[in-house]
Amino acid sequence: MVFYRSVSLLSKLRNRAVQQHSVSSSVRWLQIQASSDLDIRSHLKELIPEQQERLKKIKSEYGKVQLGSITVDMVLGGMRGMTGLLWETSLLDPDEGIRFRGLSIPECQKVLPAVKPGGEPLPEGLLWLLLTGKVPSKEQVDALSSELRSRANIPDHVYKAIDALPITAHPMTQFTTGVMALQVQSEFSKAYENGIHKSKYWEPTFEDSLSLIAQLPAVAAYIYRRIYKNGEIVPANDSLDYGGNFAHMLGFDSSEMQELMRLYVTIHSDHEGGNVSAHTGHLVSSALSDPYLSFAAALNGLAGPLHGLANQEVLLWIKSVVNECGENISKDQLKDYVWKTLNSGKVVPGFGHGVLRKTDPRYMCQREFALKHLPDDPLFQLVSKLYDVVPPILTELGKVKNPWPNVDAHSGVLLNYYGLTEARYYTVLFGVSRAIGICSQLIWDRALGLPLERPKSVTMEWLEKHCNKSV
Ligand code: NMX
Ligand code: MLT
After folding, report:
1. So what's the pLDDT on residue 469?
2. What residue's CA is closest to ligand 1, atom 36?
3. Residue 25 in this model has a pLDDT that exceeds 80
4. How many Å is the Cα radius of gyration of the chain?
5. Listed GO molecular functions (predicted)?
6. Backbone φ, ψ for residue 136 (5° rounding)
7. What is the pLDDT of residue 10?
8. Which residue's CA lies nearest to atom 6 of ligand 2?
9. Could you write out the three-class secondary structure of 303-364?
10. What is the mean pLDDT of residues 260-279?
11. Are 436 and 278 in contact (CB under 8 A)?
12. Contact 274 CB / ligand 1 (< 6 Å)
């Protein structure tokens, strides 16, 4: 809680600076202002009261406005199309795709600071944007990078907890175990035990969230090196940014792989609130479970094959195509392979979506990355062929609402090209990134005082009786 003391010291200094209105004190004031400008907590402290007021006004003025009606289909259909959550950090349009605080992916690529001009956005910049709704300067991003570095140390018991699992345990199981082991350091649960006032919940939630985000790359890299590289650990490089250092700890030091990791972590971070991982994190945290508990729950949802595990499934599927038909497979052969998959009662991984109705812009930006850096890679060319072949087949099925590729259709071939070939590990990378979105919203959940989530459920008997009455 050291930083709260420093924030209040800052505001005292600020008041003093205002009182002593001399030339030298105004120079000092500028310095103080500049240093607090780099501190994301000061921005949040300023934003929270105005956003609390905004929510209060929405409740009092529009509380009874209807947002649509609920049909039986919606109840039986996984709540598709049912608006039921407040999620501030991003919003998904079915046709246009995701906007992070109002900015599309191409816009983020333009305005968020990068390591070099025209480079991929730094994930720390996206974290700043999600938390504050403002595009940060390079100095602000650098300050956040160094704050994350200062929190990245991993207690030894976390490695021991992971080591207690067989090396054959799925990487996502090892990852969730690591997150649960980190939970013992939760500031939120300590503060709750000590009777913290509810108006202050966001503060230790912020502490936990930043520490968790900071620590995840080292835990994830440890698991990768443990399983696939004989446990030879690569220490952090403190001169690198979050994404670059993550690639480095995994064992990849080419500047292209570092750029890919920055793009990867940025685009997988957030996809509004209803996806399985985000919704799970938000639900669990609504019981005032701390960010570690909430995020571990979210990871367990991400580990499902219809959600985050699809990136693993895509590369394994693509490799099975190559094994059976070779890299230079014709479109006709590919069609047959897709039908064979469908006829055996499986989904085509990487295609379709619960909300999107067009090609995922996260797919498109990865495609652009591939066209720039690996246009001749045979697996990339296979992914491009799938883009032509799969949508007409899924459309022909007649029941698939979105035949277009999603984010997972592309990520594996990029990682594979740079040497990260172990598909079973891919969902862990998704998980590291998803923490940025989920934790940013958890901080706002607590700052806005959002309540325990508890929707109503009904039985089939209830539905039959209710529907008989209404016809
Ligand atoms: N291959 C085969 N069948 C599909 C596919 C697909 N790619 N996508 C949807 N369908 C089927 C779906 O299984 C359902 O069949 P049934 O009625 O027999 O149960 C029917 O089409 C209608 O489903 P939709 O309403 O179009 O899709 P829904 O919203 O229920 O599910 C997904 C969305 C993403 C779960 C689904 O499209 C899918 O299983 N895709 C493949 C897995 C995948 O790529 N998941 C990753 C999603 C992104 N992420 O990272 O989370
Ligand atoms: C995600 O990124 O969470 C997936 O695209 C799934 C979703 O949005 O439902």
Report:
1. 85
2. 352
3. no
4. 24
5. acyltransferase activity, acyl groups converted into alkyl on transfer
6. -80, 160
7. 34
8. 275
9. CCCCCCCHHHHHHHHHHHHHHHHCCCCCHHHHHHHHHHHHHCCCCCCCECCCCCCCCCHHHH
10. 98
11. no
12. no
Atom of ligand 1 nearest to the CA of 275: 51
- In sequence order, the 6+-apart residues with CB closer than 8 A to the CB of 381 are 327
Q: How much is the pLDDT for 34?
A: 54
pLDDT at 394 over 70: yes
State the catalytic residues.
Answer: 307, 353, 408
* Distance in angstroms (rounded) separating the CA atoms of residues 296 and 304: 13
Report CA(466)–ligand 2 centroid distance (Å).
Answer: 33
Please state, in angstroms and rounded to a whole number, the distance separating the CA atoms of residues 251 and 216.
Answer: 16
Nearest ligand, measured from the Cα of 433 = 2
Inform me whether the pLDDT recorded for 276 exceeds 90. Answer: yes
> Counting atoms of ligand 1 from 1, which one is nearest the CA of 77?
30
Q: How far is the CA of 390 from the centre of ligand 1 (A)?
A: 13
Q: Which atom of ligand 2 is nearest to the CA of 360?
A: 5
CA nearest neighbour of 18 among 8, 7, 26: 26
- Higher per-residue confidence, 33 vs 215: 215
| Size of the chain, expressed as the number of residues it contains | 471
Q: Does position 15 have pLDDT exceeding 90, yes or no?
A: no
Q: Which amino acid is at 131?
A: L
Cα dihedral 223, 148, 291, 182 sign: positive
Q: What's the predicted TM-score (pTM) here?
A: 0.93
Predicted confidence at residue 35, as pLDDT, reads 63
The residues lining ligand 2, judged by C-beta closer than 6 Å to any ligand atom, are: 271, 275, 307, 354-355, 406-407
Residue 452: how many CB atoms within 10 A of its CB? Answer: 8
* Distance of CA 151 from the midpoint of ligand 2 (Å): 29
> How does residue 8 score in pLDDT terms, banded at 50, 70 and 90?
very low
Position 12 pLDDT exceeds 90: no
For residue 351, which atom of ligand 1 is closest to its CA? 7
Q: pLDDT band at residue 408, thresholds of 50, 70 and 90?
A: very high
Q: What's the confidence (pLDDT) of residue 32?
A: 44
Phi, psi for 410 (deg, rounded to 5): -115, -30
Burial profile 287-296: b = 16 or more Cβ within 10 angstroms, e = fewer: ebbbbbbbbb
